């Protein structure tokens, strides 16, 4: 990981839906090659932040710079070029149920490249091999487990060799063993390929296993209340809510 090079910069970002502000004046940076985790309690805006960072929804104000380009203001060819620098894995996996795993992973190549079918199939098999699914290329999503579906979705997110992967709650709905296997895969991909990961999660075990750095959101302030190494947050933070979160302590009723 290059600890000095910034690949994502979020500046004064205010985001929400239908006039309701969920996050206000957010500022942070993600460094190239790190596994960066966005965490916080339910309703704090974790997924909202991710969806605005990737341009899925328009921001109320502010900027999101991805490798030097502002996705908020980019249009046309510039916007398409930015979109091709990252891949996304949504919480459900969002695989197309009528397509095999090979066809799911091949789809971005069919859409955005001029490769022939043989080349695309070879690359799709390579991506599925990276996530341990090369033996399941002909399977439909409903023929494999939930954990395998998440891995296939990561393979599809990597189809165009992006610099950045955004993962929304990758461990959601998985048992502890499968979740740990997915954590190990994410860490291995980050270390071996140098891909930058931005991951939304609230699973403490996953956070400790994969995160180089975290930001913690709090819906009460509509912003960031912690930024840094998760173990230091756990052991050294003086913020009561941060300590409650990392130590799994219930909040007092009159707090």
Give the SSE map.
Blueprint (H helix, E strand, L loop, with lengths): L5 E12 L2 E12 L3 E6 L5 H8 L7 E6 L2 E2 L5 H8 L2 E4 L11 H12 L4 H14 L15 H12 L6 E5 L7 H18 L2 E5 L3 H7 L2 E6 L4 E6 L1 H7 L3 H7 L9
Parallel strand pairs: 3-8, 3-9, 6-7, 7-8
Antiparallel strand pairs: 1-2, 1-4, 4-5, 9-10
Task: Give your account of this protein's structure.
By secondary structure, the chain is an alpha/beta fold. It is about 35% helix and about 25% strand. A hairpin with a 4-residue loop joins strand 9 and strand 10 (about 225-230).
**Which stretches of 5+ consecutive residues score pLDDT under 50?**
none
As for the CATH topology of the largest domain, it is: Rossmann fold
Q: What does the radius of gyration come to?
A: 18 Å
Percent in helix:
25-40%
Q: Give helix and strand order, one letter per element, not per position.
A: EEEHEEHEHHHEHEHEEHH
Can you tell me the number of structural domains? 2
Class by helix and strand content? alpha/beta
- The CATH class of the largest domain turns out to be Alpha Beta
What overall geometry do the principal axes of the alpha carbons give? globular
Strand order of the largest sheet: 6-7-8-3-9-10
Assign the CATH superfamily of the largest domain. P-loop containing nucleotide triphosphate hydrolases
- Our measurement of the CA-to-CA distance between the termini, rounded to an integer number of angstroms, reads 40 Å
**CATH architect. name of the largest domain:** 3-Layer(aba) Sandwich
Average pLDDT across residues? 90
Helix tally equals 9
Strands, total number: 10
């Amino acid at each position: 990981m290059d600890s000095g090079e910034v690949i994502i910069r979020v500046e004064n970002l205010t985001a929400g839906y239908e006039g309701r502000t969920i996050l206000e004046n957010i500022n942070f940076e993600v460094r190239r090659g790190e596994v960066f985790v966005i965490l916080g309690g339910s309703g704090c805006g974790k997924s909202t932040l991710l969806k605005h960072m990737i341009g899925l929804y328009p921001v109320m104000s502010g900027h999101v710079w991805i490798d030097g380009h502002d996705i908020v203001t980019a249009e046309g060819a510039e916007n398409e070029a930015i979109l091709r620098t990252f891949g996304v894995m949504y919480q459900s996996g969002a695989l197309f149920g009528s397509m095999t795993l090979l066809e799911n992973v091949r789809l971005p190549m069919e859409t955005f490249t001029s490769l022939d079918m043989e080349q695309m199939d070879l690359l799709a098999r390579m991506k599925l091999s990276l996530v341990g699914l090369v033996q399941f290329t002909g399977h439909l999503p409903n023929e494999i487990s939930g954990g395998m579906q998440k891995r296939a979705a990561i393979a599809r997110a990597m189809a165009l060799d992006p610099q950045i992967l955004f993962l929304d709650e990758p461990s959601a709905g998985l048992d502890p063993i499968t979740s740990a296997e997915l954590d190990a895969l994410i860490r291995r991909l980050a270390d071996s390929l140098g891909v930058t990961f931005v991951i939304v999660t609230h699973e403490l075990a996953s956070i400790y296993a994969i995160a180089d750095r975290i930001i913690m959101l709090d819906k009460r302030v509509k912003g960031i209340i912690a930024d840094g190494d998760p173990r230091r947050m756990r052991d050294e933070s003086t913020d009561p809510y941060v300590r409650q979160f990392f130590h799994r302590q219930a909040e007092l009723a009159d707090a």
